[in-house]
Write a structure and sequence with these properties.
Elements: E1 9-10, E2 13-14, H1 21-48, E3 50-56, E4 69-73, E5 87-90, E6 99-106, E7 111-116, E8 122-127, E9 138-141, E10 173-174, E11 179-183, H2 193-196, E12 199-200, E13 204-213, E14 219-220, E15 227-229, E16 237-239, E17 250-252
Antiparallel strand pairs: 1-2, 3-4, 3-17, 4-13, 5-6, 5-13, 6-11, 6-17, 7-8, 7-10, 8-9, 9-15, 11-12, 13-14, 15-16
Length: 258
């Protein structure tokens, strides 16, 4: 007596569980669709969330150097504006073939003035409310700037720019509700809000987060926060929690391969 092999019945009869040519085609199509969807997601992340930039010039020295390559992110800008102290890529409100890279100093709605100290070195003063005197305010302690700052130390006009005709104490100017006051860390050689005025919120293109070149300085971008020094109090500082003269420090996206 011979025994014949049998096939376990499937839901639609004997052998229905076996994959045929048509099932193989469906599986292949599904796999291809998954690959295409994954590629599209990666493309969208690169195109809309992150962006590589090339630093040109020295307006952000010593934190950033000429020819540094950075990664910037844009996701957070869909939910809020940049915070004070963050390094941002901006489209300046002047004719320029490239974007600029600067640090956020003054926030929307604040009052700002710049004046030299007794030694001629510039200082930034911030007030959250309309100042009641020509001086005062809260001085920013800025550990990231490149040495003594002695150029363009009288600011600001109503447009946010510096002017030699301002009083020696500088003048208070109100930052519009949708604008920022940005500056380079290398204050003596930076074209920034002192020359082109307020930076519109719409002009902020991204926030620098990581340096990937050169390899000797690879790591997070040094986005040090300024400190608010209490005027009239010696040695007391509190951290700020609130949220390219030269064109050095402009940034541009590396050319796309052809």
């Amino acid at each position: 007596m011979s025994l014949e092999p049998t096939t376990a019945p499937g839901p639609n009869g004997p052998g229905a569980g076996a994959a045929g040519p048509q099932g193989g085609r469906h599986s292949l199509i599904r796999d291809l669709l998954e690959v295409v969807a994954l590629a599209a997601i990666i493309y969208l992340v690169i195109a809309f969330a992150i962006r590589p930039v090339h630093v040109e010039g020295t307006s952000m020295y010593p934190g950033l150097h000429n020819n540094d390559l950075l990664i910037t992110e844009r996701v957070s800008l869909y939910f809020s504006g940049p915070s004070r102290g963050q390094i941002v890529i901006i489209n300046p409100p002047i004719a320029s073939p490239t974007d600029f890279i600067k640090r956020v100093i003054g926030l929307p709605g604040e009052w700002v003035r710049i004046a030299p100290g007794s030694n001629g070195v510039g200082h930034v003063y911030i007030s959250n409310t309309k100042p009641t005197s020509a001086t005062g305010g809260t001085a920013l302690v800025e550990p990231y700037i490149n040495g003594p700052w002695t150029q363009e130390v009288l600011c600001c006009t109503a447009a946010g720019t510096a002017s030699p005709t301002l009083p020696a104490t500088g003048s208070w100017a109100h930052i519009p509700k949708n604008d920022y006051f940005v500056m380079g860390d290398n204050r003596n050689v930076s074209e920034d809000s002192r020359t082109f005025g307020w930076e519109p919120r719409s002009g902020v293109q991204g926030i620098a987060v990581f340096r990937f070149w050169p390899l000797s300085r690879i790591g997070p971008v040094p986005a040090q926060m300024p400190m608010l020094a209490l005027v009239g109090a010696t040695g007391i500082v509190v951290p700020v929690r609130r949220r390219r003269v030269s064109r050095g420090g402009s940034s541009q996206t590396p050319p796309a391969p052809t």
